[in-house]
Design a protein that fits this description.
The chain has 292 residues and is of the alpha/beta class. It has helices at residues 20-29, 60-65, 76-82, 125-134, 168-172, 198-218, 232-238, 267-276; strands at residues 9-14, 42-44, 50-55, 71-75, 87-91, 97-104, 119-122, 140-143, 159-164, 175-184, 186-190, 220-228, 246-249, 255-263, 280-286. The protein is built from 8 helices and 15 strands. It has a 6-stranded mixed beta sheet.
Length: 292
């Protein structure tokens, strides 16, 4: 849908699957107004120059590389398997998984060298082939289109190479990971050619800024606390914030309020240290968006 006659860029997202709901949620949180019906293959944004295509995740990198769409949201594992030239713009901090080789529990396969001469079932032929070559291993690659995890129980292969997220599917099929090829997460990707077209690059930059602000916000918490004035320097060292914390004088002249942001990964460690430094009345809030 054109906004005031403006041209639109196109983005492809997964129609269904493990990333679909997360993608739609991300776009809605970025302020985009569009239809997200399950059976819909196309939707135009009513308030931003962006058209959304719902397609198979395996097709997304190729659609982007071929210029059919300008942007895509897809797992890094799919990008590496497709071996196409796209620009990774923003890591999205969801869709985490690992491409791993898993073997039946109790088997004699315990390390990479044990893979020599075996049959490995996978949908990731290119990634597996590259790994075997890099490690001077020789194994037969059995390429399947799905349900890879059942291959050993059907005697189709000795082990499998597939993505593992929670690991439950592997456990259900009596498989255990032996080798991790690489970690993966979802990325916002772009066609390099689109980035060279001025009007497209301007829209992509605006869109990427919205996405980055959401991703950054999810990694941080907003912290407000009271502290003795003499402890401020020590507390600032613990929570430096984006540029610098906000220091607000309080009614008691020997006390101040400190406002800052803390990274989610170290949140509890920082809170414990703040209390030891004399911080009181610590309030913590989620951050909806964070524009740096």
């Amino acid at each position: 849908m054109k906004i005031n006659g403006q041209k639109n860029v196109k983005i492809a997202i997964q129609q269904k699957g493990r990333l679909s709901e997360k993608c739609i949620e991300l776009l809605e949180q970025a302020g985009l107004d569009f239809d997200s019906y399950k059976r819909k293959l196309y939707a135009g944004c009513r308030n931003f120059p962006l058209d959304i295509l719902y397609i198979r995740d395996d097709d997304i990198p190729e659609y982007v590389a071929d210029g059919i769409v300008d942007l895509g949201i897809v797992g890094e594992d799919v990008i590496l398997e497709q071996q196409v030239k796209v620009k990774k713009i923003v890591p999205l901090n969801f869709g985490f998984c690992a491409l791993s080789i898993a073997c039946p529990k109790g088997s004699a396969i315990n390390n990479p060298k044990d893979l020599n001469g075996l049959k490995i079932a996978t949908t990731y032929r290119n990634c597996l082939k590259k790994y075997l070559k890099r490690n001077n291993l020789k194994a037969d690659i059995i390429e399947l289109s799905g349900s890879v995890e059942v291959a050993p129980s059907l005697s189709v292969a000795d082990c499998v190479c597939d993505i593992i997220s929670t690991g439950e599917t592997m456990k259900e099929n009596n498989l255990a990971p032996v080798v991790k090829l690489f970690d993966s997460q979802a990325f916002l990707i772009a066609d390099p050619k689109s980035l060279e077209i001025k009007w497209k690059s301007e829209i992509i930059e605006r869109f990427a800024m919205r996405i980055e602000s959401l991703v950054q916000a999810r990694k941080t918490k907003y912290v407000m606390l009271n502290a003795p004035r003499q402890a401020v320097d020590k507390i600032i060292a613990m929570i430096p914030g984006v540029d610098s914390p906000t220091i607000v004088p309080l009614a008691k002249s020997d006390m101040v309020a400190v406002h800052s942001v803390v990274e989610e990964e170290i949140f509890w460690e920082v809170i414990e240290n703040l209390k030891k430094a004399g911080a009181t009345g610590i309030l913590v809030s989620p951050i909806e968006k964070m524009i740096i």
